[in-house]
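Sequence in, structure out. Go.
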Amino acid sequence: MNDWLDRNPFRARLPWCGGDLQTLRNMVMRGRPDLSPWPVETLLLAMGDGSGDRLVARLHRPKPGPARPLAVLIHGLTGSEDSAYILESAHHLLAEGWPVLRFNLRGAGPSRAHCRWQYHAGRSEDLADALAGLPEDALGQGVVAIGYSLGGAMLAKYLAEQGAAGPVRAAVMVSSPIDLTAAAHRFLAPRNTVYHLAMLAWMKREALAGPATEAERAAVREARTLVEFDDRFSAPRNGFAGVADYYERCKAVRFLGAVRVPALALHARDDPWVPAAAYEAFDWAENRHLTLGLSNGGGHVGFHGQGGPWHDRAIRSFLDRTAA
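Output:
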């Protein structure tokens, strides 16, 4: 895979130059890929914790062709099945003959109406429950998983827990905050004020849309930063002692060494939301199952390059080599 990355370095497509424009393109461009050529089936996937929560997922099957594993796409923080990067990747993979599942985490998007609880970076058990509930006829060739941003961090934890015996044969993490503390504090930097305010508003809206106690609602409304939000709402609601405990116990970098299936991590040094330092400090060579694709440009889940989304081409090349 490193050979492909070496031969095909990321090159930005004009006018999307720099990490900020790469990141913002997903928000400002209104056009979305058309998935209507591939019929969709709606699935309700039960969680195994007794809560009664169910996750909504959309299953697309490609036209007849070579059998390929099911590609499960996992969105990031405040995302859903309809996030721009999810739709782009789904279209790219379906056009190449891969069946695709667009997955809504607990309490996100269409799952909101079916859930009492909400996702967080450490809810890897939700991935295990969801995969266990998929129809058998969709799993004939196994599963590959692609996680974006926070979804990739959750995926890394799941991969470590499943070991080599789980259903996922290969995985990709895109722009994932593998060190939650570093990512949360990056948002507090003055240059990220607009991003920070927007993300905090989206997180509050998402949290207040679901069931919560009056004390929890007050904590959400009063939070002035992402760190305060996680300290006063996310951490206590999910059994953590506080924000430091939540970030430390759920950070993906703790789990990467235990991954036992081929896994590719794609990240950009100019990502304005997620620092690259944790990627540069981790010893990727210590785990033969891991491959790092660290580019100089691409922003946060951007990678809008010459010839189309660069990360989608990297994903396809990696999956063709490891799982097709």
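Check: The domain at 2-179+253-322 is CATH 3.40.50.1820 (Rossmann fold). Residues 80 and 108 are 6 Å apart (CA to CA).
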